[in-house]
Amino acid sequence: MNLFNDLYTAEENLLPQDGTVNYFGQIMTDEQADLYYNKLLHEIEWKNDQAIIYGKLIETKRKIAWYGDFPFTYTYSKITKIALPWITTLLELKKLVEHKTGETYNSCLVNLYHDGSEGMAWHSDDEKQLKQYAAIASLSFGAERKFAFKHKATKKVIALQLVSGSLLIMKDETQDYWLHRLPPTKKVHTPRINLTFRTID
Predict the structure, then answer these.
(1) Which PANTHER family does the entry mention (predicted)?
(2) What's the CA gap between 179 and 161, in Å, rounded?
């Protein structure tokens, strides 16, 4: 386990206002995290993500996959994705995350960042298909990466390191008032896999 966990408790809200973010730290051993990382790397149906920017279709280096209870549609960056049926590994992790967070989820967006050059710009997960104020649980595997929140009005920034096998949850009005991002870095040269369990309304 990582000593970094000692800096946080799952009950602590990392946001000073307008939302709730809890960091559970590692919820499994390093060995379990490595095992799941390798299984996900080989079992997920990875595809390069796409976005329409200034009217042009852009394909990212980052790879994604979308899974769910039903063939839900999910639209972001003006591209619509249809959920694939769950695989056993994801169902195992969903059950673990639901137990830890006390929430339920019906879908999961999976991201593969090959190295630190790949990240995500400031954004909120506020798409219409998502249930309002429902929890979004983020489970990380592989490379340790910085993750940051920025308040839309005050511009206050809160940042932390997400380690392999760790769980973070965003809920309540967080998406209304805060942006979040995974900043690129030249210090990371190995992949990270991130699972965000969500609820489609």
Answers:
(1) ALPHA-KETOGLUTARATE-DEPENDENT DIOXYGENASE ALKB HOMOLOG 3
(2) 17
